[in-house]
Design brief:
The protein has a domain at about 110-385: 3-Layer(aba) Sandwich (Aspartate Aminotransferase, domain 2), CATH 3.40.640. It is built from 15 helices and eleven strands. The chain has helices at about 15-35, 50-55, 65-80, 105-115, 125-145, 165-180, 200-210, 235-245, 270-280, 320-325, 340-345, 355-360, 380-415, 440-460, 490-505; strands spanning about 160, 190-195, 220-225, 250-260, 290, 315-320, 335, 420, 430-435, 465-470, 480-485. The strands form two sheets. Strands 1-7-6-5-4-2-3 form a seven-stranded mixed sheet, with helices on both faces. Strands 8-9-11-10 form a four-stranded antiparallel sheet. Strand 8 and strand 9 (about 430-435) form a beta hairpin. Helix 4 runs antiparallel to helix 13, helix 5 runs parallel beside helix 13 and helix 6 (about 165-180) crosses helix 11. The model has no long low-confidence stretch (mean pLDDT about 95). The structure holds pyridoxal-5'-phosphate. Pyridoxal-5'-phosphate binds near residues 166, 261, 262, 295 and 333. This is Aromatic-L-amino-acid decarboxylase. GO terms for molecular function: carboxy-lyase activity; pyridoxal phosphate binding. Belongs to the group II decarboxylase family. Keywords: Decarboxylase, Lyase, Pyridoxal phosphate.
């Protein structure tokens, strides 16, 4: 017989606070144990497609669980069905993509956010959700050394937490288009956005979403500018493209500069791009410069990395992901703009049912007007916990340790005659490959590198990923391996073990 004591009048089997406490303690223990046994799992999940689904019932359960006791079965499935299908992003030997590092304080903040169950779309729907968020994003302005006019207390600027860098780019793009439209460009203009060939695919996706680009192949309305041999945008080619477009009657309205590209950590010349926009009529017609620093932005907590951004003078918005490399579990993007009114102009719509005195007074921020969805979670809590727990010193130490480890790895690559760096190290990202053998074709070098990567990943001991760097200045395109260091648990011994495994796997 199930215990009926917690049922309300409607017979709904909620957990009582006491049951929740008991189960909650078990699950917090589970997560702490998981942290302790992280190294015992293959880093990359080894299941075949459909394997997890095949162990799950096709139909939902008709009967719920038999109280807390019934949860034993759920926890067993968690171990037997779910865990084998998990790739362990928090493993100290996870070096793939970019990190998505989590931390104890962030996980607890997430738990609290779920426990409060607040929906913070308007200031009035939970004042603390808005005011804490405003304060922590302003703290980030200090921590990263961003311009004062990105602060919420400045005359026209402010920051907000978006879900992802992709949403940040979309929001910047629609704000830009609306600003240029209000400046006099016809609404049905042929809009053109610019980024480098190395920009993240989310720039193209944003243009597709807001109707600027007609499909993923539309290189007329999203111009991907060629790069130099370090994969940074060539500003003179941006200028040429803008002038061609103006000549053809199109309307350049948005440039996305990447600081720390996803492929190779490349950095676009922000100052020169801003100068191009100022020299051509782009800036004077309201055109917008957005910085996508999704991964590398976190490194700005260290003053020694602030030269990544050679100038912020003409930057309209800047976004980075604390959910990549600042110990705040996914999702958490910090977005800053100098022109908050442009966001409101593009995104604010007020139906009667959301009207309220606080909003009408103009004295409060309603973050729903700064983002795509209406509803929003209390994400500021996890960022607040992280910032308070680690402090600026702790965050700097975290970034510096990963950069130090990447320098070690870089030096081992350089010392081994069989390997080479593909591009100079970027912060904690090392792009490298097996050198071409004498007389070997580019295709065969690529194949040897691909096979090496597959061998090390199949071992389950590490997980690295690859990219293809495009052909520049006569040099052919290259398949290369990426060593992206950034898990909170990674120590020097893990980086050394990864290198030793790579070396031992060369055939
Ligand atoms: C990871 C990454 C993105 C996408 O991040 P999301 O937050 O997942 O949207 C965008 N730009 C760059 C440069 C990235 O590295």
């Amino acid at each position: 017989m199930r215990d009926e004591s917690n049922r309300g009048d409607g017979g709904v089997p909620h957990l009582s606070p006491e049951e929740f406490r008991e189960l909650g303690h078990r699950l917090v223990d589970w997560v702490a144990d998981y942290q302790q046994r992280l190294e015992s799992f293959p880093v990359r999940s080894q299941v075949a497609p459909g394997e997890v689904a095949s162990k799950l019932p096709l139909r939902p359960p008709e009967e719920g669980l038999d109280g807390v006791k019934g949860w034993d079965a759920v926890l067993k499935d968690l171990e037997d069905v779910i865990l084998p299908g998990v790739t362990h992003w928090q493993s100290p030997s996870f070096f793939a993509y970019f990190p998505a590092n989590a931390s104890g304080p962030a996980v607890l903040g997430e738990l609290l956010s779920a426990g409060l169950g607040v929906q913070g779309m308007l200031w009035s729907t939970s004042p603390a959700a808005t005011e804490l968020e405003t304060r922590v994003v302003d703290w980030l302005v200090d921590l990263l050394g961003l311009p004062e006019d990105f602060r919420s207390t400045s005359a026209r600027g402010g920051g907000v937490i978006q879900g992802t860098a992709s949403e940040a780019t979309l929001v910047a793009m629609v704000a830009a288009r609306e600003r240029v439209r209000r400046g006099g460009a016809p609404a049905d203009s042929e809009w053109v956005a610019y980024a480098s060939t190395q920009a993240h695919s989310s720039v193209l996706k944003a243009a597709m979403l807001c109707g600027v680009a007609h499909g993923a192949e539309d290189t007329t309305h999203v111009r991907l500018i060629e790069t130099n041999d370090r994969y940074g945008m060539r500003p003179e080619l941006l200028e040429r493209a803008i002038l061609q477009d103006l000549e053809a009657g199109r309307v350049p309205f948005f440039v996305c500069a990447t600081v720390g590209s996803t492929s190779s950590g490349a950095v676009d010349p922000v100052r020169a791009i801003g100068e191009v926009m100022a020299r051509t009529p782009v800036r004077s017609t309201g055109g917008w410069l957005h910085i996508d620093a999704a991964w590398a932005g976190s490194a700005l907590v260290c003053p020694e990395h602030r030269d990544l951004l050679d100038s912020m003078n003409r930057v309209d918005s800047f976004a980075f992901n604390p959910h990549k490399w600042l110990l705040t579990n996914f999702d958490c993007n910090a977005f800053f703009t100098r022109d908050r009114q442009a966001l409101l102009d593009a995104l604010s719509v007020t139906p009667e049912y959301l009207r309220n005195a606080a909003s009408a007074s103009g004295a409060v921020i309603d973050y729903r007007d700064w983002q795509v969805p209406l509803g929003r979670r209390f994400r500021a809590l996890k960022l607040w916990f992280v910032l308070r727990h680690y402090g600026a010193k702790g965050l700097r130490a975290h970034i510096r340790e990963h950069v130090r480890l990447a320098k070690c790895f870089e030096s081992w690559v350089k010392e081994d005659a069989r390997f080479e760096l593909a591009v100079p190290r970027s912060l904690s990202l090392v792009c490298f490959r097996l050198k071409p053998l004498p007389g070997e074709s580019a295709k065969d070098t690529d194949a040897r590198n691909r096979e090496l990567l597959e061998r090390v990943n199949a071992s389950g001991k590490v997980f690295l990923t690859h990219t293809v760097l495009p052909s520049v200045e006569e040099a052919p395109a290259r398949y290369i391996l990426r060593m992206a260091i950034g898990a909170a648990t990674t120590e020097e011994r893990h980086v050394r073990a990864a290198w030793e495994l790579l070396v031992a796997s060369v055939r």
